[in-house]
Task: structure prediction
Amino acid sequence: MQALVYTGTQTLVYREEKNPKVVNGESIVKVSASGICGSDMHAYHGNDNRRIPPLILGHEISGTINKGKFAGKKVILNPLITCGKCEYCTNNKEHLCNKRIILGMNKPIERQGGFAEYVSIPDKNIYELPKTLDIKEAPIAEPAAVALHAVELCEKNLINPLKESKALVIGAGAIGLLSGLILSKIKNCEEIVIVDPNTKRLKECSKYLNANTVEPNSKSILTDYFDVVFDTVGMEITRQQAIRSVKPGGVIIHIGLTQSSGFFDFRKTTLQEIIVVGTYCYTNKDFEKTLSILADKKIGSLDWIEYRELKNGSLAFKQIHDGSCSAPKIILLI
Ligand SMILES: [Zn+2]
Ligand SMILES: [Zn+2]
Result:
């Protein structure tokens, strides 16, 4: 099969690779579409010790079952593979399973990803594609499930309902935009500010999201003001913005994984009882709920997604890296 292989820092090569082997309890998917995630970008930059080259990246995948018990069906994959037996898996918190692994990772266990013609996946991770969801757009279900999980974790910790809360979203990539769309269109949140240094990307978001789109130095980002701040970037500087702008008793939802440490104002956290919530992936229930949200078109048009061919994937990575791409999400078509 042809695949886009991550071979070293900032290097991807489109080349011939071995087809995945048929494994008991798994199916082979003929991939139709595969989204580029922020975590694939971390790998590309050589900053991910769970993704070591050579490796086929990609975990936001739709396609058709080629071999296996659902042969011929159009599907969307939940790429988070878990043990099914531990205390997390048996308490609807599969995403915290000690043995969790995502497609397109090779540490501690190897699982080749979806930037290829074929990928193997356990049958329990396969969902039939809802009829109203385009197979090209379907990979957006994965980051949308991340955003839904984050928004609902936030909801549990807020003083006021989201409808009456003021939200700051840091980062206008796919997770930022999807969090904003879920806040606005599903939770009826009326006051949303979304911040990003990339003005082209902000302009694109403003076409779809009812929010104030601003650059990081904007005066609209008031101090001690927001009920909730979503940090979808996860850098020292964005965490500092989050803690500065959150109001007493407010919530910081930390989703980004860009920098793992740095200065943080724990004094304000303590004196103002700030709730800081880390969030990762989603539960199986979140994934199912996301599919029905997308099937019912509840977050509106997905025309902000840009499509490229898999064989040109290397250029897409490069343009996301240098900021010349304004789309919050690029999906590669195979
Ligand atoms: Zn992802
Ligand atoms: Zn488990």
